[in-house]
Design brief:
Helix content is 93%, strand content 0%. The radius of gyration is 14 Å and the shape is flat. It is mainly α and 56 residues long. α1 packs antiparallel against α2.
């Protein structure tokens, strides 16, 4: 049941962050923005895995 709110928040954040990421991509270039996003995703994934590990 927690999947629906998670998907809703994800969609809203996707919508709100599309313009700032696009502006940053035009200003800084695609590669730095993609690498920043990838680094942020990796950090979030590691944090999530640690939190799941602690919960178990």
């Amino acid at each position: 049941m927690a999947v629906r709110p998670t998907m809703m928040v994800s969609g809203v954040l996707w919508m709100l962050m599309a313009r700032p990421w696009g502006t940053a991509s035009h200003r800084l270039g695609r590669r730095p923005v993609l690498l920043t996003g990838l680094a942020g995703f990796a950090c979030a994934y590691l944090l999530f895995s640690d939190l799941v590990h602690l919960a178990l």
